[in-house]
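Fig. S4 source data, part A: sequence.
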Amino acid sequence: MAKVCDHTSVGMFVWKDGELLLIERANFPFGFAIPAGHVDGDSSYEESAKRELREEVGLEAGDLKLLAEGRKENPCRREGGTWHHWKMYEVITTGDIKRSEDETKQAGWYTKEQIKELGDRTKRYQDKEIREEEWEKSPGLEPIMYEWFKELKII
């Protein structure tokens, strides 16, 4: 039975030497994204942020700084998952990246220029210049991340 969406999500911005940690999602919704996920019954968004960082990239979260929050229309693969209330954090981490083999195709550090290029690809996808099959093989930013990155003036 499919999980039901709880309409709550967290996203974690992890910066190192001017580069941002991004993962490429192995599952829908396809694209590059910061580590993120559902709250899933955790006692707080902050607890979820720490859990998702461990699950997706093997990092331990230290200080969390809330950057933004709000409702966004965005699909997920869960039943009823058409929107989420997001809390976006900047996070100081420790440890080495050990990406989830199930949830990610890759994880790495990206410059603002590389992120802008991924965003440009997302815009082309949204404008129907890139077909779905091509997008799944070589995506840009996950569309909800493209929206957040613009709002937070990263791109």
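Fig. S4 source data, part B ends here. Residues 112-126 form the longest helix (15 residues).
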